[in-house]
Amino acid sequence: MDPLKSITQIAGSGLVAQSTRMRVVAENIANARSTGSAPGADPYVRKTVEFGANFDRAMGATAVAVTSLGTDQQTPFAIEHDPGNPAADADGNVKMPNVNVMLEMADMREAGRSYSANLQMIKQARSMISQTIDLLRAG
User: Fold this and answer.
1) What are the residues whose beta carbons fall under 8 Å from the beta carbon of 35, sequence distance 6 or more?
2) Local confidence band at 23 (pLDDT 50, 70, 90 cut-offs)
3) Which member of 14, 89, 91, 108 has the lowest number of beta carbons within 10 Å of its beta carbon?
4) Cα(62)–Cα(99) distance, rounded to whole angstroms?
5) Domain range spanning residue 108?
């Protein structure tokens, strides 16, 4: 298989993986204050993305893939005292989502940079293909 085509396919798999990651991070940020609908109910649970290597025999290379979308069951919910909240328990405490907005923003920034790097790789491969075609025409 053409190495330049492999490069674009590998970088393309990175684009798909990072766009999934950015979508999940955006959902986490959007729900950072989403409490349960009933007193004492659990709030929104932070979602996670897991990546893995995916060997493509036709391409002869390993690409990145989203292996699973899950939830963060290890980070505890924050507790806030807000007796006026409809999700408050008998003591006036509300379980808040286990989303750390600063951590999510850092993750979003990293995903954006990875996405840009993969996009740049595709642009470079296309430029090399174009230059090769130009050289073949001139020769």
Assistant:
1) 41, 43, 44, 85, 86, 87, 94, 95, 96, 97
2) very high
3) 91
4) 32
5) 3-138
3-state DSSP assignment of residue 62: strand
Contact 107, 48 (CB under 8 A): no
User: What does R_g of the chain's alpha carbons equal in angstroms?
Assistant: 22
Q: Which residue has the tokens 């924050």?
A: 78
Instruction: Map tokens 């328990």 to a residue.
Output: 89
Rounded CA gap, 125 and 11, in Å? 10
Specify the number of domains making up the chain: 1
**Cross-strand bridge partners of residue 39:** none
Cα separation of 30 and 65, whole Å?
A: 25
Q: How far is CA 109 from CA 48, 88, 113, 125, in A?
A: 16, 34, 6, 25
Cα end-to-end distance, the chain, whole Å? 24
**What are the tens digits of pLDDT across the range 36-73?**
999 989 999 999 999 999 887 777 778 899 999 999 99
- Identify the residue whose tokens are 């993305």: 49
- Which residue carries 């897991």 as its tokens? 50
Single-letter code of the amino acid located at 101? V
